[in-house]
Design a protein that fits this description.
Blueprint (H helix, E strand, L loop, with lengths): L2 H37 L5 H29 L2 H27 L4 H32 L2
C-alpha cells in the first residue's frame, strides 16, 4: 500500500460517516413527510432517523462489494449502469422492509411510504435543478 492510500481510505471512511449522518438527517425528514402524506402517520424523529441510517448502512453493505466487483471487472460505464439499475429496486425493497419492520407496519404500507419518499426526493431534485438552472442562465 502506497503512502497516499491511507489518506484515500481515511477520506473514504470520513466521507461515508459524514454522508451517513447528514444524509440520514435529510432522509428522516423526508421519511416523516412521506409517512404523514401517504398514511397519515407521525413517526418520532429519532425513530425515523434510525430507520434511514440503518437503511443506508444496509444499502452500503450490499452496494460496496458489488461496486468493487463491477469496477474490478473492467466493464466500463455499461456495467456501472447495469449495477445501478439492479441496485435501485434492491434499495427500494430494503427501504420498504426497514420502514415496515421498524414501525410495525405491513410491508405494503412500507412500500407505499418508500414510494412517497422517492416521489418527494424527485420533487426536491426537480426544484433544486430548476433553481440551479435559473441561477446559471440568469446572467446571460
Amino acid at each position: 500500500m502506497g503512502p497516499g492510500a491511507s489518506g484515500f481510505i481515511g477520506g473514504l471512511l470520513f466521507g461515508l460517516v459524514f454522508s451517513a449522518l447528514i444524509g440520514s438527517l435529510i432522509g428522516s425528514i423526508i421519511l416523516r413527510a412521506a409517512a404523514k402524506w401517504a398514511e397519515n402517520l407521525d413517526f418520532p424523529f429519532g425513530e425515523a432517523y434510525a430507520t434511514v441510517l440503518f437503511t443506508f448502512l444496509i444499502n452500503i453493505a450490499i452496494g460496496m462489494p458489488i461496486g468493487f466487483i463491477v469496477g474490478a471487472s473492467g466493464g466500463g460505464k455499461s456495467a456501472e449502469l447495469a449495477m445501478q439499475a439492479f441496485l435501485l429496486p434492491v434499495g427500494f425493497l430494503v427501504q420498504s422492509g426497514m420502514i415496515s419492520s421498524r414501525h410495525n407496519l405491513p410491508f405494503a404500507k412500507g412500500l407505499k411510504i418508500a414510494g412517497f419518499m422517492y416521489l418527494i426526493s424527485l420533487l426536491i431534485g426537480v426544484v433544486l435543478g430548476g433553481v440551479a438552472f435559473a441561477l446559471l442562465y440568469a446572467g446571460r
